[in-house]
UniProtKB/TrEMBL annotation:
Its EC number is 6.1.1.2. Homodimer. One of its GO terms (biological process) is tryptophanyl-tRNA aminoacylation. The keyword Magnesium does not apply. NCBIfam families: trpS. The gene is trpS. Coiled coil: none annotated. Catalyzes the attachment of tryptophan to tRNA(Trp). HAMAP family: Trp_tRNA_synth_B. This is Tryptophan--tRNA ligase. It comes from Blastococcus saxobsidens (strain DD2). Belongs to the class-I aminoacyl-tRNA synthetase family. The lineage of its organism: Bacteria, Bacillati, Actinomycetota, Actinomycetes, Geodermatophilales. Pfam families: tRNA-synt_1b (PF00579).
Amino acid sequence: MLSGIQPTAGSFHLGNYLGALRQWVDLQDSAEAFYCVVDLHAITVAQDPAELRRNTLTSAAQLLALGVDPSRSALFVQSHVPEHAQLGWVMQCLTGFGEAGRMTQFKDKSQRQGAANTTVGLFTYPILQVADILLYQAARVPVGEDQRQHLELTRDLAVRFNGRFGETFTVPEVFIPPGAAKVLDLQTPEKQMSKSLPGAGCVFLLDEPKVTAKKIRSAVTDTGREVVADAANKPGITNLLTIHSALSGRTVAQLEQDFDGRGYGDLKKELAEVVTEFVAPVQQRTHELLDDRAELERTLAEGAARAREVAAGTLAQVYDRVGFLPPA
Ligand code: ATP
Ligand code: MG
């Protein structure tokens, strides 16, 4: 299994955790996992070099703090494994221009960037993602719904390569983990919580408890007063219940019962406590890991070495199959 996440400025948010990273932690029990911080993908949009380096370390520290276990899973930084870029090139040469142009994520992202800031790297990044996955012969790739099209491209290219050059790649299954929650923005509960939305609707894992409590207190709700889940008419309250349930382990039905006769204020107050209790140890652990940078770098080096063992084998086979002359 393979999954990756971009190094983000500051920290990951509740949506990243409940929609993706928690599944990374859980899935370690059932498969050999390769998890990477995808810094090659990060530079598809402009980055400050010092910040990118810092964000890469902070992202890795958070993944460990959340429960990625380096004794079971390979946790590494994408640029430490050069085979990603190398296989990416080969796969680009198998992809039709029109085929790449149909990726809706590119359309969205390039629109956000504006024409002047849209790079060729942003256009071809889905193909680098294809390489990320195929290098490890991943059978399952846990992703959110927004990544389904890229997974289909991965399958198409794997089948194409296998057909043209002989069986080489495992064709991966799209795997949308059942426990993944979709978290909505606290200020705009019609949209997914996202670091790019303006306003204070995104709860970051490394936010100060006071900031978290304030964001939850100011969450947009409807004018009613009953704490019941109703996605169509009460998206704000439903979202708060979803987050509470995901972190506390109590079902939404139980929560509705507990809050029967109590108001939105009580729900927000309790949710702030639930979130703070969850993030406090994660924050502490993240800071401890960042304080011992040498140890953190060692962990990432070990992860990269494990990843390279597999990646180098796949790449050697690919180079041979496409007809590259082996170096003497
Ligand atoms: P951006 O605004 O740049 O798109 P983001 O905050 O949406 O950033 P991503 O980097 O796009 O975060 O997402 C990282 C992972 O977290 C992906 O697997 C994505 O599916 C998941 N994810 C992001 N936001 C949410 C959310 N609100 N609910 C559930 N999962 C989410
Ligand atoms: Mg996103």
